[in-house]
């Protein structure tokens, strides 16, 4: 193989956004070593945000590329991966905005936090397009190990240490289970690691009905379910969310979850078409458990971070409806919901960070009467929570409407009805927080709000937090009213991805009930 042929097969341009993020990471690391901690904190976060936005812009030039396959089939830069990589990059950029003041106030190094966060971002972006077992596992571990480090980053906080230890132990177990499942796939396929060739080889060997393939499926789904925090693999979520630095929780709830769903689509659709009915059944069960437990247990929470933890479990259940449907509209509804979930969930966590910085608490009862002291924070948190609950005309309403409409078209009536019921339950605990902030009389104001400090955006690191707050507030509001471009983008990312279209045309992977494959335009 000559050099020109090798370069063509590597197709390095397909990972241009990842190269930009890696370059940004190296510059931040080297710059911090050269100028020192005090000086680097003044420019490294803004440089990191610039690098992430540049990488996000580079994704535009990869849309509908004629040569998406890179690195000898190990990476697929198709349109679906581009959307998920964009979600991961944007979530990291917004996370940095909300992190600057928080990390500096905790007394830890900001540049090191950025380095680990950018490493997690690279892992999530590679995971979104990985098309080979080794690449999948390396990208997954890059994201996971960075997440463990971020979780325990505030070393002086015992809760952060406890959260990191729990996350590490449970994460290591799930990683081992996932690896065992992929090793079974490797053996059953006769030594294949490329996802698109695994099912072909297993079918050719007559192992479509083997117990080994079912065991591999169960183990792989267990690893994926841990990453997306689906019940019953959610045990780590409430404790890790409560003990971790809040900006880290924000990234885990959006960036890491989006990468997990990208992996779920690519791995289940490409490597397990011979057992489609089985994984549809398993994912349906996980979706039901996640929607019910996540939303019901959230009713009893007294901490905002734990409430948002169980909320994220319930939201994962809603998104899994699109995966179970297995149609163009189903996958597109997943993509659309994750795009708007980026804004409304990060907006909610931005508000929690701001309130915690000013009061030192995240207890829901301490939000009583907040509107009298901080109208902007009250408005932003109310909009984001109501959007998460699916109140029209906010973005979350259209996201759930799209998922439920796609499910109804596909004949998944029980899932849709359960989703509607649990959405009503979720509205109750979201509105409870809004009521706490708005309805309280002056004499019922909480102690934290009574001692609320004077609002000042001129303190170091507060201006980026304000920008993040306003951006997420505006995006959550506008994305609902002007949602058609996002609908179109979500539909195009599915209908123009050959992997999904080929999978849905194979008779072996048709779902057991009739499915309408027509994309939905609302």
UniProtKB/TrEMBL annotation:
Catalytic activity: a plastoquinone + NADH + (n+1) H(+)(in) = a plastoquinol + NAD(+) + n H(+)(out); a plastoquinone + NADPH + (n+1) H(+)(in) = a plastoquinol + NADP(+) + n H(+)(out)
TM region positions: 15-36, 43-62, 82-103, 110-128, 134-153, 165-186, 206-226, 247-269, 281-300, 307-325, 331-355, 376-398, 410-431, 467-490
Domain NADH:quinone oxidoreductase/Mrp antiporter transmembrane: 130-426
Keyword Translocase assigned: yes
Similarity comment text for this entry: Belongs to the complex I subunit 2 family.
Assembly: NDH-1 can be composed of about 15 different subunits; different subcomplexes with different compositions have been identified which probably have different functions.
Alphabetized InterPro entries for the sequence: NADH-Q_OxRdtase_suN/2, ND/Mrp_TM
Pfam family, one: Proton_antipo_M
First-tier enzyme category under EC: translocase
One cellular component (GO) term of this entry: endomembrane system
Name of the protein described by the UniProt record: NAD(P)H-quinone oxidoreductase subunit 2
Compartment(s) of residence: Cellular thylakoid membrane; Endomembrane system; Membrane
Keyword Hydrolase tagged: no
Taxon lineage: Bacteria, Bacillati, Cyanobacteriota, Cyanophyceae, Leptolyngbyales
Keywords: Membrane, NAD, NADP, Plastoquinone, Quinone, Thylakoid, Translocase, Transmembrane, Transmembrane helix, Transport
């Amino acid at each position: 193989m000559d050099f020109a042929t090798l370069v063509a097969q590597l197709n390095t341009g397909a990972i241009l956004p990842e190269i930009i993020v890696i370059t940004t990471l190296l510059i931040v690391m080297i710059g911090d070593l050269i100028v020192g901690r005090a000086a680097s904190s003044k420019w490294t976060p803004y440089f990191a945000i610039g690098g992430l936005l540049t990488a996000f812009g580079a994704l535009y030039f990869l849309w509908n590329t004629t040569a998406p396959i890179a690195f000898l089939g190990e990476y697929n830069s198709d349109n679906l991966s581009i959307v998920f990589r964009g979600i991961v990059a944007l979530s990291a950029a917004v996370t940095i905005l909300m992190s600057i003041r928080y990390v500096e106030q905790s007394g830890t190094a900001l540049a090191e936090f950025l380095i680990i966060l950018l490493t997690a971002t690279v892992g999530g972006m590679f995971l979104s397009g990985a098309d080979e077992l080794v690449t999948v596992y390396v990208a997954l571990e890059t994201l996971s190990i960075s997440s463990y480090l971020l979780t325990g980053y505030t070393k002086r906080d015992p809760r952060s240490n406890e959260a990191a230890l729990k996350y590490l132990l449970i994460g290591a177990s799930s990683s081992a289970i996932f690896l065992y499942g992929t090793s079974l796939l490797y053996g059953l396929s006769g030594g294949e690691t490329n996802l698109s060739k695994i099912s072909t080889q297993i079918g050719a060997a007559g192992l479509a009905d083997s117990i080994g393939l079912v065991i591999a499926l169960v183990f792989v789904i267990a690893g994926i379910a841990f990453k997306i925090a689906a019940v019953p693999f959610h045990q780590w979520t409430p404790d890790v969310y409560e003990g971790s630095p809040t900006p880290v929780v924000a990234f885990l709830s959006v960036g890491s979850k989006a990468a997990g769903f990208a992996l779920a689509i690519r791995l289940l659709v490409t490597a397990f078409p011979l057992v489609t009915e089985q994984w549809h059944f398993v994912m349906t069960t996980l979706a039901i458990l996640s929607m019910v437990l996540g939303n019901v247990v959230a009713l009893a929470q007294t901490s905002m971070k734990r409430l948002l933890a169980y909320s994220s479990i319930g939201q994962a259940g809603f998104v899994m409806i699109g995966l179970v449907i297995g149609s163009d509209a189903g996958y597109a509804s997943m993509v659309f919901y994750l795009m708007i979930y980026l804004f409304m969930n990060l907006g909610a966590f931005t508000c929690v960070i701001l309130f915690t910085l000013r009061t030192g608490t995240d207890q829901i009862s301490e939000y009583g009467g907040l509107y009298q002291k901080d109208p902007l924070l009250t408005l932003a948190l109310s909009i984001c929570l109501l959007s998460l609950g699916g109140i029209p005309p906010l973005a979350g309403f259209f996201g759930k409407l799209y998922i439920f409409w796609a499910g109804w078209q596909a004949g998944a009536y029980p899932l849709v009805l359960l989703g509607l019921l649990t959405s009503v339950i979720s509205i109750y605990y979201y509105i409870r927080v809004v009521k706490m902030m708005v309805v309280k009389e002056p004499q019922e104001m909480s102690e934290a709000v009574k001692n609320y400090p004077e609002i000042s955006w001129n303190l170091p690191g507060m201006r980026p937090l304000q920008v993040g707050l306003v951006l997420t507030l505006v995006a959550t509001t506008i994305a609902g009213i002007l949602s058609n471009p996002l609908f179109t983008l979500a539909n195009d990312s599915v209908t123009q991805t050959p992997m999904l279209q080929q999978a849905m045309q194979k008779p072996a992977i048709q779902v057991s009930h009739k499915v309408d494959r027509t994309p939905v335009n609302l």
